[in-house]
Design a protein that fits this description.
single chain; 363 residues; alpha+beta; OB fold (Dihydrolipoamide Acetyltransferase, E2P); 8 strands; 40% helix
Length: 363
């Protein structure tokens, strides 16, 4: 619970908003859950009353009422200050489910790409291209998720694949977007490949890493990491050595917690030694302590018992317990600070007298 809180707090601190940015969307998971998935151009956008689409359409403000003067209201009442909007999509590829010609999809936009209170983030504008995850309700197409139900994409399409699953076709279309003339469209294509998480994308992403444009190369490192490519970890070490508050460095730091390949341990240890950021440290420790649990991580976990940060100490204890099974290093279920300090002292004593003399994966 403490570890999850640390990661959540760090993420909120990093993004300063409730909704994760579209660059981190899990395309594969969304496509597997949504019953209808297609892509295309927003050909027309209108409000329910046929007014031009504007920010604030069909948005709601929720009030924490501290005084009621007349009438009655429920708990935390919401006030609507807009109307529904609809986008007609010129579909150029259908991946899953069936969709009629030129479908119209209902949406609401609150004026921010990460939404108000994590809702209504998607702003369909005419002549923009989208990957849409939809569901049909009462004969009307709705976004599967009001913040991740549509993702910006390049207008370029790959070849029509015959006898291939939708996942391969989607990958081919994203790969085509790498050749888009617009840099913004190339970057979203890289991000979508990362969200698809297919190892088959790795060669193309490495070609992007080798290109001259550093921003696109950095995003390609992030995307490759999401596909399980640990060969980019030396790139990650270099990028995070100067901080994690920019993009995609922040996204990369957060993604490190998902690394699960034991072959990554030496590179993760190097990142832990050289990356100064709190999120990088927490993510790497989480991967080493909770997922990989490799004996080679024991010495650096022991070093982090001396951290002044309680969450770091807890993760170090947990990792040492998981790997060595040493009772002296078992973190308490209680978050009491004094209890944690006592546990750390006991584990340090074990390390000083016995632990450091053992060959932790030296073979």
């Amino acid at each position: 619970m403490l570890v999850s809180s640390v990661l959540s707090v760090s993420a909120v601190k990093l993004w300063s908003r409730l909704m994760s940015p579209p660059s981190t969307a899990d395309v594969r998971e969304l496509a597997e859950k949504a019953p209808i998935v297609f892509r295309g151009r927003a050909a027309k956008v209108r409000s329910a009353e046929h007014r031009p689409h504007a920010y604030g359409v069909d948005s709601f403000a929720t009030f924490d009422v501290d005084r009621l003067y007349r009438g009655s209201v429920g708990n935390d009442p919401s006030i609507q200050y807009g109307v529904d909007s609809f986008a007609t999509i010129d579909v150029d590829r259908s991946y899953r489910g069936s969709v009629r010609k030129d479908p119209t999809i209902h949406f609401v936009y609150s004026g921010s790409d990460t939404g108000m209170d994590g809702h209504n983030c998607i702003d369909f504008q005419p002549d923009t291209y989208w990957l849409v995850f939809a569901v049909e309700k009462s004969g009307q197409l709705e976004l599967f998720d009001d913040c991740e139900g549509a993702l910006a994409i390049s207008p370029l399409l790959g070849p029509q694949l015959k006898d291939f699953a939708w996942l391969a076709q989607m990958e081919a279309d994203f790969l085509a977007g790498l050749n888009d003339a617009a840099a913004a469209n190339r970057i979203v294509s890289i991000q979508r490949l990362g969200g698809l998480k297919l190892p088959s994308s790795q060669d193309a992403l490495h070609r992007e890493i080798d290109k001259a444009d550093q921003n696109e190369a950095n995003w390609a490192v992030y995307a490759a990491l999401r596909t399980g490519d640990i060969s980019v970890l030396p790139n990650v070490e270099q990028m995070l050595s100067v901080g994690e508050m920019s993009s995609p460095e922040g996204e990369i730091a957060f993604e490190l917690k998902n690394v699960n390949d034991p072959k990554a341990v030496p590179d993760l240890i190097a990142i832990l030694a050289h990356a100064p950021g709190e999120l990088s440290r927490t993510s790497v420790l989480t991967a080493l302590a909770e997922t990989i649990k490799d004996p080679r991580a024991v010495p650096i976990l022991a070093d982090h018992l001396s951290s002044t940060d309680e969450s770091t100490q807890y993760l170090a204890l947990e990792g040492l317990r998981n790997i060595t099974h040493e009772v002296a290093c078992s973190p308490s279920e209680s978050s009491n600070t004094e209890n944690l300090e006592w546990r750390v002292r006991q584990c340090k004593l074990w390390w000083k007298e016995k632990g450091k003399f053992q060959p932790w994966g030296s073979d």
